[in-house]
Amino acid sequence: MWEAFFAAILLVLCLLAILFLGHHRWENSSYVKTIDRIPGPKKKPIFGNATALPKEIDEIMQTIQGKWVRQFGRIYRNWLGFRPFVQISSPIFMEKILASQTFIEKSTSYNILRPWLGGGLLLASGDRWRKNRRLLTPAFHFQILDNFFDVFNKNADILCQQLAKASISNKGQFTEEIDVFPFLKKCTLDIICEAAMGIKINAQLEDTQYLRDVHRISEIVVERFFSSSNFLPDWLYHWMPHGREHTKILERLHGFTSKVIQERKQEIAQGRLEGDVNGEDLGGLKKRRAFLDLILMAVKGGVELSDVDIRNEVDTFMFEGHDTTAAALVWLLYCMATNPGHQELVRQELDELEMITALLVAILLVLITVLFLAYRRWECSSFVKTIDLIPGPKKRPIVGNATSLPRESDEIMQTIQGKWIKQFGRIYRSWLGFRTFVHISTPHFVEKILTSQTFIEKGKSYSILTPWLGEGLLLATGAKWKKNRRLLTPAFHFQILDNFFDVFNKNADILCDQLAKAQSSEGVKETDVFPFLKKCTLDIICEAAMGIKINAQLEDTEYIRNVHRISEIVVERFFSFGHFLPDWAYHCTSKGREHFKILKQIHGFTSKVIRERKEEIAREEVQNNDAENSEEIKKRRAFLDLMLLAVKDGVELSEVEIRNEVDTFMFEGHDTTASALVWFLYCMGTNLEHQELVREELNDVFGNSDRSCTIEDANKLKYLECCIKESLRLYPAVPNITRYISEDFELGGYKIPTGASLSVQIYALHRNEDYFPDPDIFKPERFQMDESIGRHAFAFVPFSAGPRNCIGQRFAMFEEKVLASALLRRFKISYNLAKHGPSKANAELVLRPKHGMPLNLVSFS
After folding, report:
1. Binding site for heme: which residues?
2. Binding residues
3. In the listed set 306, 338, 370, which residue is the last one of a domain according to the structure?
């Protein structure tokens, strides 16, 4: 007996010793030392500051958000056990965190909600959060929210009746006080159930199992949060009495939500939902069922969401949509009750609201009448009549053909460059609101537009890029475009491009190493190569355009994040109502403010580089003050430096103009090349026999050597070039370009009036079977010399053509050859068609893979 007792004592002492040593080591770690440099209350071993907190929840909040803020400042740290929290309460600090695109993941404190809400919007992070946020955002458009006012009003009436009923006692006398919070919670639960799931649970009028479960699960979660079980893993917590109750209630809640989802699915499948679910849209937004039904319709349209994903989103709406609103309302009522003067002012405003509403209705009627008359006049204008003589889909008032377009970007392209071409021909017109587009996809028409010296102005759609790129080569017109084009053309002479091969090769090696590292990770069979390609091409164009190394492939910097984020914002604006807003109005929106803020940082970075390069050139000229060395400088730095040297020689270019050109190179030089490369790899991964032929050619040129690719090598890689061109035919990096029609002219027997936009549909042009038989099949031999004879020169225009063709096309082709050859010398590449199906292409600013590009990369080394 004594032996067992002493053994137990010894075991406890050993455990305490291990705990002490572990705690001592942890205390001396760099992580803890870094955190403890931030001011905050003194922590105790094991417990941190937990013992310094009061027992009552209201007192805990007053300590954390009051006493300690006064004592340690607007940024301080505290410890809860082994968990540190850095507390901030200054708008400047908050802006940095809440506006960040990096710190979007919720902290581990939220994990106790995960069994209930799963990976719903509240707890999701990364790509899942972005995808679901983008999917659900249209559900909160004001035109859709307007349809929920009957739900708000109906439940508000029931709430008032229930409160009036509760205020009368059994004896028919008015009670002095009522606890309104339970009534508010039931009311907001009724509203969110109808809004999120499309069902009525009548929580205000009757008691149900679901109502009791929602209230009880909320209580259990709060109890767990403020107890030691917060630190237990879920599997251990579920062995405790509260944990077992938690699991049991969750099963019922999830079962209820899943049952509703299945019923709504059946109703959608059978077309039994009220109204026209498949019909009337408002610019692509579903009018009637905005939450659950929107998700189900998206799934029906091809969005990948499992039943569990859908359930998580619905449960998240339920959690976030009733308790938070009830809390906000109860404190509003408290503030009104304790401030009768303000309550009276609100009541006066409500009395005036009827008169204001009547006035607004009258104004609205006048505006509708004016809009109708203006629209009728516009409809009868010669411009509209001339355009409508061109065949095309039937337009609707105000929205044009916007409501005829699908919601998904890949489906929009298939409609514009596929379905409507089959229906209306190789020249047709469409309307996007009041904007008209004449679409062409035959080489004869394309040649007439692209070789014109008159129609060199880009279409109005490009105007959303103006705040970023200004009047750089992409957007400039007239004399400015001619001057800058003439100035920059020498930068792309092959003798200068030869000097960039070390940049191409160095970054190709890093790309291969990064992909090999990603592919070798445990459990990884496929790697989405697109993000890697974007970082690689960004590294290359930064060094080529600005002469600086940003190491995008190896580290994350603010400039990299800004370039990626500004591209996302521009695309989001392009496919939203923000596209139609003038810049000053767009910058008043939340996205517009973010856009403006990021642009300021990007422009600041570019301007700083320009100033530094100016100083460096001045130093180089002092050190190398002879003609031969001056030529070397020009050769070595061909883009930014060429402009700076031209300014020194008397060419009039302001710093803003130089910045615009550099930003244009950055925009056009990384996303387009990454797009071209990712589709090339897709074609290689789905056409292994052609991949082997390319590899044979690489072996002929390089043998067993692992040496870098030279310009002479690149010129020998003829079959690789054919494969790159064929992938560009099938998947042009820029699927369409537009031109502004500045004067009336005739095309294909139709008059195109001044003010129209002419859209060259490159994707459809490249799949014209009159010039490319079997247009959907990958056949690189189409671009061999004997096969190309007799083909119309404008049947293949991946880099545009004519005077406004891509100035950097030779640079891009050499870059693609070097990167492609490096990848194919290092890896055998395959794409699992059986698993993923054909990759879908999103036509945004460039042609991107809709769901990334998962490739299997088998290293030869």
Report:
1. 806
2. 806
3. 338
